[in-house]
Write a structure and sequence with these properties.
The protein is an alpha+beta fold and about 325 residues long. Helix content is about 45%, strand content about 20%. The chain has helices at about 1-30, 60-75, 140-155, 160-170, 180-190, 195-200, 205-210, 220-230, 245-255, 275-280, 290-320, and strands at about 35, 50-55, 75-85, 85-95, 100-110, 110-115, 115-120, 125-130, 135-140, 215. The protein has a five-stranded mixed β-sheet with strand order 1-2-5-4-3.
């Protein structure tokens, strides 16, 4: 456990080093790209995904680009998730001592969220920023704040840190041409408050504002859904054994490791409910003798329970990279 704690302390340094290598490689292959979002701690203390716009035509070229990079850096691609028709998340991993270092890179060629085409990022100006003798491109401040604002509005995942960041830079909206003066005034009034309570109360009004110039692309979204049904990015493991053999212990060990971080979330399903499992809990492994007929009935019963879990619960989560 001490090694795992030390690993978590080192993970920010590992990510920072890998991010710098990644952008050195990116600069050699693409001139039209931009890092998106709050860059105040970039590349230090990156706790979430790295959002990047890259002007690509087909996803195959990005997959080849990532494949060459991970080979060069001796990394592994643990998962690729298509969460919008033009947006992909690449989970990159590398074994570090007894644990796995990971970094998630989200790449899009325009800003699309919940099937809404919101910003054509190819038309916005980029600016160069120098960092430790390495440069990277980002959107200019007024466009980056607008991107960050509508992302937080549509996702609704505002917290004190992100609200403070927006509040500090929100006056840059006056320089943005993507909003009219009336809507700018509404947004600026909301950010007069020191906490995010007004933002949360006005979230529906804010969503209506940011959706004004957006459009749905239903055909491409349907293609994405069918693709996710066929190529599921989630992972399903079944633990089978007699009572007391250590199934729950193994599951708990997985949840304590950083393996679930390679997926959107981890969930467990049991053939019996918690109350039944607690009452039937035995300290030592044991087997019951039912006889052939009752054993056959039990097999059919358990199989029907499994089918219910898989096709109603598990399969849906596998499609969503759980």
């Amino acid at each position: 456990m001490n090694n795992f704690i030390q690993f978590n302390k080192n993970i920010y340094d590992l990510r920072s080093i890998e991010i710098i290598y990644f952008f050195k490689y990116l600069n050699k292959h693409y001139s039209d790209y931009a890092v998106l979002g709050d860059l105040s701690n970039f590349p230090k203390k990156i706790t979430s995904d790295i959002d990047i716009y890259i002007n690509f035509k087909k996803i195959d070229e990005i997959k080849k680009f990532i494949k060459k990079y991970v080979k060069k850096r001796k990394l592994n691609v643990s998962n690729i998730v298509q969460y919008e028709y033009n947006s992909y998340s690449f989970n990159l991993t590398k074994k570090y001592k007894d644990n796995y270092f990971y970094i998630s890179i989200d790449i899009c060629n325009s800003f699309t969220l919940n099937n809404l085409d919101l910003i054509d990022l190819s038309k916005l100006k980029k600016e160069k920023i120098l960092l430790k003798k390495m440069h990277y491109l980002t959107l200019n401040k007024k466009d980056n704040i607008y991107y960050y604002l509508i992302r937080k509005v549509l996702k609704g995942d505002i917290d004190n840190k992100s609200y403070s960041y927006l509040r500090k830079n929100i006056k840059l909206l006056n320089l943005n041409n993507l909003l009219n003066s009336k809507n700018k005034k509404i947004i600026l009034n909301i950010f007069k408050y020191k906490d995010q309570s007004a933002f949360i109360k006005k979230i529906n009004q804010l969503r209506d504002i940011v959706k004004l110039n957006s459009k749905n692309n239903y055909i491409k979204e349907l293609k994405r859904i069918f693709f996710r049904i066929k190529f599921k990015t989630g992972f399903h493991v079944a633990f089978i054994g007699v009572d007391g053999s250590g199934k729950s212990t193994q599951i708990n060990q997985i949840f304590k490791s950083n393996l679930p971080l390679f997926f959107r979330e981890a969930k467990t399903f049991h053939l019996y409910n918690k109350h039944q499992r607690h009452n039937n809990k035995k300290k030592k492994p044991y087997q019951k003798t039912y006889g052939r007929f009752l054993s056959l009935i039990k097999i059919f019963y358990l199989f029907s329970r499994f089918l219910k879990f898989y096709y109603i619960d598990i399969m849906f989560f596998k499609m969503k990279s759980f």
